[in-house]
Amino acid sequence: MADKRRIPETLFDDLGFRMTYEVERVLYEMQTEHQHLVLFEHPFFGKMLTLDGATQVTTKDEFVYHEMMTHVPILAHGDAKEVLIVGGGDCGIAEEVLKHKSVRRLTQVEIDASVVEFSKEHFPDFTKPVIGNKRFDLVIDDGMNYVATTDRCFDVIIVDSTDPLGPGKILFSQKFYNACKRCLTKGGVLVTQNGVPILQSGELTTGIRKFRKLFADGTCYVAAIPTYIGGHMAMGWATDNKRLRHTPLKTIAARYRKAGSFPTRYWTSEMHVAAFALPRFIADLVARAG
Ligand code: SAM
Asked: Is 160 considered catalytic here?
């Protein structure tokens, strides 16, 4: 019997290692205008999406990242009505944001329409509650261009981007964070996917250094996502409201109850508060940001 195809995660080739994933079935593969896209079925992780050789989402562990990138900033803010997602083509984060009935409008700016298109077919759990929802606006554009030109302001901006390569590179730039600050409401929060510190330490330190040129509070919180290889994933945190990440546990729990205690599989009010307690080596990287 012929060996099954194996799809490599090439993101860490320069560190001398590669993960490979056995392919049950390729569901979709194409070179889009912006990136190389493969969607396939894996025997354990379920449906997996890779863009330019980097794992983006799997049906097995998506809940960790999607819940922590969404419920932490929204419940810490406490009164988020206007939310912006930059990237997020699979709509996994949009689905979580719309669980917050207090959010009046969610705008998603995605550069690659084909990611949203095939997600409608292959990630219906994410897209069904989102596409067509009257609180949801989808804009196909480069996130840099959108935040630099929009006249709207947002209480929470969630940057669910690819890694700082190809189309995603600009979303890690000072120029982009300057423009995000411009369209954040007073005391608003910016959260970003900021890589895996043990493997992408520079990405974290430089990201936080850029935050601190603009915001009173620039740091990160963490969670472990099995298919984002390397242990803790860092989620960048930037706001002028220094108190937000110190919101007491009972206040977060009360806000979650008020939001209807929708089901979660990773996020809890305890995990929310604990996520800002950083292991020493990550705290040192944050401190190094100056
Ligand atoms: N959670 C994943 C991760 O951490 O690697 C990211 C998932 S999501 C699929 C990433 C999305 O960012 C993709 O759909 C990609 O097309 C989009 N993207 C990349 N660069 C972009 C840009 N400059 N503006 C808007 N969207 C962008």
From this structure: yes
